[in-house]
Fold this protein.
Amino acid sequence: MSLIYHLVLVKRWQAWPKNTPYLPAEYDKDGFIHCTAGDELLLKVANRFCRQIEGDFVLLVIDTTKLSSPVKWEHYSDEVLDSTFPHIYGPIQPDAIVEVHQMQRTADGTFVGWSKS
């Protein structure tokens, strides 16, 4: 099993039809699903790209061995991050999502961890 992570706003996740392949709102624009791997990198990514977004988030834990969509590891670098990230080029099938966790944030929006939903 190879696990990667994807952050989703709770309101989008709850509105998504159950048992159907998932695509984030940004998929049409980006052409892939942004993911990350590793706990420390997840928090860096969450605070770099999602800290200013209001609302609650959940963390999807995805088993890449259950995906039918291809995963490509691609490099990204800016003033905060310099790493290789997994990108999913297609939808995430429901059975590939092995866990869902509620993200924890401070009052200023900083992501500090997650707990089981």
